[in-house]
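Weekly puzzle thread! Below is a chain. First person to post its structure in token form gets bragging rights.
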Amino acid sequence: MKKQPKRFDMYRQPNKPKWYLKLVEYLIVPPYMFFSNAHVKTDPEVKKIKGPYLILSTHASFIDFPMVVAGMWPRTTGWVMSVEEFRRGDWLMYGVGGMPKRKFTHDIVTAKHILRYLKKLKHPVTLYPEARFELAGVNERLDGALGKLCKKAKVPVVMCKAYGNFINSPQWSKHPYRNIRQEGHMYVLLTTEELERLSAEEIQAKIEKAFEKDEYKWQVENNLHTKCKKRADGLYRILYKCPVCGTEFEMKSEGIHLWCEHCGAKWEMDTLSRLKGVNTEGGFSHIPDWYNWEREEVRKEVRAGKYHFEDDVRVEDYYSTRVGFVDVGTAHVVHDEKGFTFKGTVNGKPFELNKPVSSMYSVHIEYNFLKRGDAFDIATDETSYFMFLKTAKNYLTKMHFATEELYDFYVRDKA
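Winning reply:
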């Protein structure tokens, strides 16, 4: 019997950033920010903090990392990062102060790492609580326990809120860059006195309010035009349902146009990212409005008991930094009111896994992950499976909506 590779050690204690990697950050970040047309403003109150603090940052593209580095200069930070990012090398990820996290799980290991980093190492920690890139330039759902973590940490909470980074490189079409100004603002969101006075629920509400954003609205208000000739490429990834005929998964986009292959309705994206009908008066001009309408449509399905999805998936298992991703088998997935249910063959053995609705308030999706296809991440206490859809076309965004709406209907609304 073939011996299974050693799993990633989630319990390994992270340490402060290595001095030589700090030097690399200081050398690379300024020119990277300059050539990316990225800027960050840090309030004086942040610079006055002498001890550790917790940084909460919006998350839309890679520039979010150098933006934090530049904003807190000359201090450094530890980073909470997805476990699969450690494929780049333990020496690098742990060397910059990384601590691994399996997405959308209820594990307490990472929380313990964060608290140790703040209290024992007395060093700042940066957390991207949306746990994935924004899909439509608006804020995504946060973990409901974030307020409890901040209250337990008892250190100042600093917010880093960025605009333009999504417009410049949206998750559904990261390249080519749109060459638009990117700007961040770092400020004290919660002082230690406020953390002591407020309840965990009040802290959570204040954090969620701080994360509210709309990059497309910001772009129009600041009159920031993009001349990119491929600005609509990939837009069909998030705008998968036609508002004219109601057909799903037959939207396409290329260049500056988006259209429905079922009814022929067509829209043009202007240089301010607004949509205008070419041959129809239907639809939405504001991309987040279209995106939110699709969510409402999924919500109706869920609450009517009509939501159901199934497909075959290819299963990849992320073992460790040394082993990386391994193609371990295939399975059939059903997504409904019971959550995600998988049945198949993995490592030559029968494979069954159920992730109930209550265990996932959202799901991590990746369009054409590592250029190997559309995938979603299902994490257990032991590993992270990446499930690649075999036949379903452009389903990930609807799955993202459905996971959250199922959680709301069957868990949150009944709490």
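Puzzle host: Confirmed. Bonus trivia for everyone else. The first strand starts at residue 38 and ends at 42.
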